[in-house]
Design brief:
Residues 10-217 form the DNA/pantothenate metabolism flavoprotein C-terminal domain. With 226 residues, this protein is an alpha/beta fold. Helix content is 26%, strand content 27%. A hairpin with a 2-residue loop joins strand 2 and strand 3 (30-32). Bound molecules: cytidine-5'-triphosphate and calcium ion. The site of cytidine-5'-triphosphate has 14 residues, from helix 3 and strand 9.
Length: 226
């Protein structure tokens, strides 16, 4: 349970959260996706509501049920997600990009089922729009939070992404670690800003990670040091 002092710290703030793994269609019966469960992003959306925010959740593929009382917009592809985020970005105060966005999508989506032919087949892929990088370029007063799931060299890659995408905070986790990453109910993260490590959290529930992250963001937004 949160301390009473945290109640309502995001009151009057619009928080946009993206969650889940995008789906990139190959044909009507096949697609490319990833192991994202959507749990971290949904936990962030629920925590934001708990802290009093006006929450808009943009959800790609996930087994999580739409959280009660939270505006949830379902999307499939990285492109859909990009367009959905674009529509709400300007009026948002905090944007949390917890989604696992495909880096590449098929150049073409076949309208009929692709038939089996030769011994090998090649699927041509093209880069998707990097949503977070695009938001980082557009941002005015929005507080931008990115995620970095890594299997090694966590700090180096996380800091590089934070800089490259012009984020205010980046939440890094080592998905090879016990109790962290895809599909688990817990997470162990390190939060960085431009200066370096801000917060190192032990293995705790994704709900708890979400509350700690948003409390930090709220503190920074209101200009208090934390
Ligand atoms: N992201 C995004 N749009 C993309 C790819 C990633 O908005 N097309 C966001 C993710 O939602 C996440 C952050 O960027 O908040 C980092 O994603 P990650 O996959 O770790 O970074 P990449 O820049 O794609 O680098 P790589 O996959 O090579 O590690
Ligand atoms: Ca990626």
């Amino acid at each position: 349970e949160m301390a009473n002092s945290s109640t309502g710290i995001l009151h009057g703030k619009k928080v946009v959260v993206t969650a889940g793994g995008t789906i990139e269609r190959i044909d009507p019966v096949r697609y490319i996706t990833n192991d994202s469960s959507g749990k971290m992003g949904f936990a962030v959306a629920k925590a934001a509501k708990q802290l009093g925010a006006d929450v808009h959740l943009i959800a790609a593929h996930t087994d999580e049920a739409p959280p009660e009382g939270i505006r949830t917009e379902k999307v499939n592809s990285a492109q859909d997600m990009y367009e959905a985020v674009q529509r709400v970005f300007e009026t948002s105060d905090i944007v949390v990009k917890a989604a696992a966005v495909a880096d590449y999508r098929p150049v073409e989506t076949a309208t009929s089922k692709i038939k089996k032919r030769g011994e090998t087949m090649t699927l041509e892929l093209v880069k998707t729009t990097d949503i977070l990088e695009s938001l980082g370029r557009q941002k005015t007063s929005q507080f931008l939070i990115g995620f970095a799931a890594e299997t090694d060299t966590v700090e180096y890659f996380a800091k590089d992404k934070l800089k490259r995408k012009n984020c205010d905070l980046i939440v890094a986790n080592d998905v090879t670690q016990e109790g962290a990453g895809f599909g688990t109910d817990t997470n162990s993260v390190q939060i960085f800003d431009k200066e370096g490590l801000v917060l190192q959290l032990p293995v705790i529930s994704k709900e708890e990670v979400a509350l700690r992250l948003l409390t930090l963001a709220a503190d920074r937004l209101s200009g208090r040091s934390s």
